[in-house]
Structures are given as C-alpha cells and as structure tokens.
C-alpha cells in the first residue's frame, strides 16, 4: 500500500443468528433486488430451498451458478460471462473458495458483494481480498480490494449441520492467525491499527481455546449453541478483522506459506488443516519454547487437527523430486514467507519439518 495503512476492519454489516437464512431475502433486498449467486454444489444443496423461499418473499430476482472447484482467473472469466445485465449484487453462498471467487467477480464487475457462509472454515467472508489459485489448485497470488464485504449473513444452524471437520479446520486457520500476525508485525511500526489487529487475533485465539472443544461437541450434535456461535464469530469476524485492521502489518506468514507449498503435493486435507500443521512448523522456525509448542500440540490432538504429514495424506520423507517443488512454493516471493521477521532458508525449513515429524 505504498506506506499507507489502509484500515478496512470489518464488513459494512455482519450478522450471525440461528435461523437467519429464512430472513436472508429481507436483508439482501435492502441493497438490491437483482442478484447473481455463486455457490458450490454441496453448499447450494444445504440451503437453497430456505434461501430461495426467502428471496421469493422479498421479490428478489436471482440467477445462480455453481463454481467449478477453483478460485482461478479462468473460473472468474467463466462466471463473469454468466452475470446478467442489470445485476445489482454478487452473492456468495458457500465456503472459502466460493467466497473468494465471488469477491473477485464483484470487484471486476464493480458490484457490491454479499457473503452467506455455509461453513465456518475460513474468514473469507469478512476480508477484502481473494486468494487466487491456478486451475490445478496451486497458489498463484492474492488480490487486495479497496472495498470490503457489504453484508455477511451467517445462519448458525446451517453451520451446525455442516460436517464438524470444517469447523475444526476453521479453528486451525484462526489459531494460525494469532501466530502469523505476531510474526508479521514483529519488526513493523505498532500503530493503533496494528495493535487492534493483534488484539483481534488474540481475541480469536482466546475464544477458541475457551469454547472450541465445546463448540465441536455441539456441532457433532448439530446444536447451534452459544459456544458454537462464539467460535463462529472468532473464525469469521475476528479472523477477518486481523488483516482488516492491521493490513500488511498483520497478514499471513510462514504457516500459510507452508500451506502454499504442501498443496503442490498429493494430499487429502482441508485448508485449515494444512495451515494448522504449518503453524507448528512456524513455531519451530521461531525457536519457541517446547512447552508452548507442546501446549498447542495437545490442543490439536484433543480436537483432531493434524500434527504429522501423514495425517494430511502426505508421505514422509517427501521424495526429492517433490521436495524441491514444494520448497520452491513455500519460499516464493509471491507468497507470505517474506513476512517472517527473519530469512527462512530451505535448510531451516527442512530441519523444522524433520523436528516436527520426530516430535513426540
């Protein structure tokens, strides 16, 4: 941002409530009556009858498209060609990549953006950026926009009925936010926005440590409890506010860079699961005290986050041919490893992964 600290702390409006999907049309209609919805197949299946009924009651004209699985520039072009003339709002119904591709679409078409998350797996609904991937699912770059989300609508009952694995992954991603923002801001000027971003990250961390276990237990019973509501806000709202307030001083660091590398390998893991593993590697790179790492490891094991590569579906040791490729992605200047307060070398990264794999 050329030295300018741009604060876009929160969406214009954020709402979380049990049963909110039934009133979605009423709220959307306050800003527009002609909308284009971007969604995922499973997400649409989970809410479309309730959502479309609310849109019909509000006399909202809508069209929708199911995205093809990646937040890529090619997918953005495909969706852009489907948006009808006269559309007033772009609406995302789904998880992180659905939200990011819809956000990119809204930016390119200069239309306001509304997010209706069906999972609490990321903070994408409350951030003013889109993480872009290749058509093969490898990290490409991130685009930061000068507009934040117009409206976030979260029905906690919908989140409670989603597979709990996604909630656990969102917890992993949000815990990473605290450690990454701390690393990223270490050698930066701690002005009020930066301090606010760090406090949002710590609030998210503290909320998850307090309510996380109960929230997961409640989600397994499809109970939209107070604990689950607190954790959803920690993941989506607190997570989004960190970079919204702290901007470049409080963005991602090694944990997300490691994610960018590991997704180049064959694996069967969610975004937050890989980021959670990357957080442990980051703490080792930072030479944190073993007691601190053990505390986080214990929490991971308690809730079911991965602590070893094989839990991500990645064989260890990584084959030499693949090792060079994933290391290159981690250390790429297009990623976030440069936000660490010290240089991270391939040798240091290799040693940190080896140490974690041996950690009891």
UniProtKB/TrEMBL annotation:
UniProt xrefs under CDD domains: GlyDH-like
Keyword entries, A-Z: Metal-binding, Oxidoreductase
Keyword match Lyase: no
Transmembrane segments: none
InterPro entries: ADH_Fe/GldA, Glycerol_DH
Top-level taxon: Bacteria
Name of the protein: Iron-containing alcohol dehydrogenase family protein
Domain Alcohol dehydrogenase iron-type/glycerol dehydrogenase GldA stretches: 11-139
